[in-house]
Amino acid sequence: LPFLSLPSSMHLIQVDSVQRWMDDLKLMTDCECMCILQSKPISIEKDEQNELILSSQHSTCDNLQLLLKRAWIISTELTRIAQKLEKNRWQRVHSMTVRVNCHVRSMINEYNMFTRNSSEEMHQFEKLVIEKCSEFTAFTERCVQTEDEQALKSMKSCINETLTTVAQHFGQLIELVLTHEAQNLLRQIELSDNVYITESAVSSLFSLTQEGAHLCRIIAKEGGVAALFKICRQDCFRCLYPQTLRTLASICCVEEGMHQLEKADGILCLADILTDNTHSEATHAEAAAVIAQITSPHLTFTQHLSSFLENMEEIVTALVKLCQEASSGEVFLLASAALANITFFDTMACEILLQLNAMKILLAACSDKHIVDTPYSRDQVVTILANMSILDQCASEIIQGNGVQLLMEMLFERSSSGHSAEVAACERVQQKAAVTLARLSRDPEVADAAIKLSCIPRLVKLCRSPTERNNSDSVLVACLAALRRLAAMSPDGLEDSDFQQLVKPRLVDSFLLCTNMEESFV
Fold first, then answer.
1. Tell me, what's the pLDDT at 42?
2. Is the pLDDT at 149 greater than 80, yes or no?
3. Is 223 helix (H, G, I), strand (E, B) or coil?
């Protein structure tokens, strides 16, 4: 098991293996040099320093990226040491321990070259980690020199204990380093009234949020949300609003960020930005992205939504307008995603959307291939339609906007790239289109329109052919439900075999029959 979970590993693992080796080569060769020199520094001229030292970067963000990479390598090495220790490969354990020792010293030296205002606590921790690494190296060296199997067996538990201690101290040091750097960036934001300095700090903060949830928690804990909303309340920083809001959306992926947003009265600030027509479309789009993040139905914490309900009507109104006036697919995607999420947690949102003619606006947008240009956008639109379809008044809006035709087209949604994310989006579009048809077909006029557009044969095809639905069980269940609703309205529209297998049995029996069908079944 890994001793330290570092977010940067998420990115590193996805890199081509040769490129990864090239990136790590500098770190590894530095380390081997340090082993030979027993961590003694080389005296070099100042003008040569930038060529030889790993941390010769200009920005704090670049330096932190390198530090995180070094930390990830150390964490990986510690895990490998534990694996070799389990197999009693003492020589290998010792050589890897020496390498970790050098990596740790190098990382600390590199960090101290670019950091500022290091706390006494951090210096103490650095000293402690170096001491523990030295003890660990000395311990493993004794094991290599010992040939007594019984003695080695008794030393093994002590080495395991020492290894765990080193990993824990190292993890705490990294936590301190990241916290310190987040504090420095936030201090810059708090104290500066210079646009360029603030922009640089926000940019660095955003880069840190991309390293994973753990860094987002640190930033939130250190007051990052309040500092960023402070920027969004100052007119002199208007040009920084989009970048600042993007950073806020990233931080609010964690619960700590949500709590801080509530404390900072962030939803009111977002509502003000969305309803202020003097802001740019980019600012409105990024504000919509924050709304989409904090209203995600996948979140398990919803305490912040009480204040959201107070501002919901004006937020929904602004988002519908943004959908209507969107100049690009990306802007439409962000605004429609926010609306889709809002419709999940309150039926009042659906009623507001109906009053605002949102159905007509969304259906019209779908006919513009420059605006609704991906399965992801269609997923948001059909989510809104599915949630609105619980309202009886929705049926007439669908008919007037040629919505049944759109739903029929969505049943044919296929991925053009084959990427897993896009394939999953296509499945969601098919499933929600079938759900919407099933709900709306309680209205005879909608059912009649669906039957005339040959929805029944398409639903039968989706039920019987696993490849048509990409083997998705959720699409199958939704299609069976829609088929049964339409069959109730028009029994003559089905062949007898389809009726006997897909409509007449219990839904679970039809489901089991379809999931066990071979592709050649006709």
1. 42
2. no
3. coil
Supply the DSSP string of 251-263, one letter for each residue: HTTSHHHHHHHHH
**pLDDT tier at 424, thresholds 50, 70, 90:** very high
Give how far Cα 206 sits from Cα of 158, 181, 373, 447, Å: 42, 13, 28, 49
Say how far residue 99 (Cα) sits from the centre of its chain.
34
User: What CA–CA distance (Å, rounded) separates 428 from 379?
Assistant: 6
Distance CA 416, CA 340 (A): 24
Could you tell me how many helices (H) and strands (E) the chain has, helices first?
A: 28, 0
Instruction: Give one DSSP letter per residue of 18-36, joined into a string.
Output: HHHHHHHHHHHHHHHHHHH
Higher pLDDT among residues 117 and 139, named by residue: 139
- Structural domain harbouring 91: 57-177
Strands (DSSP E) along 320-449, which ranges?
Answer: none
Q: Establish if 323 belongs to a structural domain.
A: no
Opening angle at CA 431, ends 430 and 437, nearest 5: 90
Determine the pLDDT at residue 383.
96
**The tokens of 518 are what?**
């071979």
Q: What's the structural domain count of the chain?
A: 1
Whole-angstrom Cα distance, residue 412 to residue 425?
Answer: 13
Residue closest to 215 by CA, chosen among 183, 167, 168: 183
The total number of residues written for the chain in this structure: 522
Q: What is the CA radius of gyration of the chain?
A: 29
Locate 360 and state its tokens: 């007509």
Within a domain: 97: yes
CATH number at residue 99: 1.20.120.330
Cα→Cα distances 433→113, 231, 353, 450, 459, Å: 58, 41, 19, 12, 11
**Mean pLDDT score of the chain:** 84
Q: Is residue 503 part of a domain?
A: no
Q: How far are the Cα atoms of 31, 172, 292, 317, 358 from residue 324, in angstroms, in the given order? A: 57, 50, 17, 11, 9
* d(C-alpha 38, C-alpha 36), whole Å: 6
CA distance 306 to 289: 19
DSSP class of 222? T
Q: Is residue 302 domain-resident?
A: no
Q: Alpha helices of 210-254 — where are they, by DSSP H?
A: 213-221, 224-231, 241-251
Contact status, residue 329 vs residue 374, Cβ threshold 8 Å: yes
Of the two residues 369 and 153, the one the predictor is more confident about is 369
